[in-house]
Amino acid sequence: MIRVLLVDDQPLIRSGFRALLDLEDDIEVVAEGGDGEEGVALAREHLPDVALIDIQMPVADGIEATRRIAADPALAGVHVAILTNYGFDEYVFSALRAGAAGFLVKDIVPEDFLHAVRVAARGDALLAPSITRKLISRYVAQPLPAGAGTGLEELTGREREAVALVARGLSNDQIADHMVISPMTAKTHVNRAMAKLRARDRAQLVVLAYESGLVTPRGSGQVE
After folding, report:
1. CA of 54: how far to CAs of 24, 105, 119, 183, in Å?
2. pTM of the complete model
3. pLDDT tens-place string over residues 11-53
4. Taking the mean position of all CA atoms in its chain, how far away is CA 119?
């Protein structure tokens, strides 16, 4: 059973999402909150598999709520998916850097919404290649932070190659094809790299790949 927390300051939005989720045999909504502060408290109380969090809310917004959840070791199993009305914007970018596993636009069709919840529950990032390209093009316009590169020395050559391919938006199957290895081996390389770089998920791995300088832009939205 996938345990879901809904956090949105609009009761109508929450009730709509809940109505969809309650129809599924493998999904249970364990709690609802109306602001980020309440959302963090409910995450600690209920330990959901997925927290669906609106990005703009009173008291504490979705970015701050995500940051607190990601920073709490007791909530390491909680995967945050940001809810937004606006598609990819600066708020979503900040949320990904804060530790979100991905984001959902509120006008998403029901089938895609339910699929996304299941994807998030598995610990996979909610970042299609097209979204990854937008993340890349937005991110590389910003200066690298001080201390970038920490942790790269712990990666093997194959792990570094796998992370670079993740940063290009490739799935494990595509990485396996590119590296001429099995999908399971590709997944192992990615998971080990995530552990060594202390990335919560693939979305964080993409950001870390650019912050560390492991991959660099070549033109608009491309990587070397």
Report:
1. 22, 10, 18, 34
2. 0.67
3. 999 999 999 999 999 999 999 999 999 999 999 999 999 999 9
4. 10
